[in-house]
Amino acid sequence: MRVSREQVAINRQKILEAASRLFREHGYDAVTVADVMSAAGLTHGGFYGYFKSKDELIAQTLAHVFGQGDAGETDLVRYAARYLSSEHRDNIAGGCPTAALGAETVRQTPEARAAMAAGLRRQIERLSARGSGDAAYDAAQARRAAIGGWSAMVGAVILARLVDDPVLSDEVLNETLAWIEHQDADTSTSH
């Protein structure tokens, strides 16, 4: 039985969504193709009609999830307040792919690494755009703040997720947000 092009597109979307959640929650190695297809509500045998390999699925999933980012938010402090929340920390499957999969992606295919790098570039560009309307805030300062702030946020979420002490975990998130707010205030007043 042939599947229509529309149904193929819908099924592919289901597969990417399922893989996105499963990979972030469990990591690449712990998730099988059968797990992804089952989570998507499809049969395992149909996988190769959509992807050549699990490696291709990983790269396409990363491109897919990064394509769904917070396109509108350019204010670093507002973004950090959401990112460094206990809700985001606790939502590994639906949270940031960089924090969940960054360390694992280093050992993946060049295509997967390129998808992760493209996501990083878009994030830096988006967070750098916040200063574009302020003549006193030059592009280099905006980019530095975006890179430093993003690096601090990702690192904080990774650290907050790995500790088994909820008080320390919350402290890591809260103090990183306070540090970003302080850095932003210092940058804003130095003009």
Automatic annotation (TrEMBL):
Keywords: DNA-binding, Repressor, Transcription, Transcription regulation. Residues 32-51 bind DNA. Residues 9-69 form the HTH tetR-type domain. InterPro entries: DNA-bd_HTH_TetR-type_CS, Homeodomain-like_sf, HTH_TetR, Tet_transcr_reg_TetR-rel_C_sf, TetR_C. It comes from the Bacteria. GO terms for molecular function: DNA binding. PANTHER family: TRANSCRIPTIONAL REGULATORY PROTEIN. This is TetR family transcriptional regulator. It comes from Paraburkholderia eburnea.
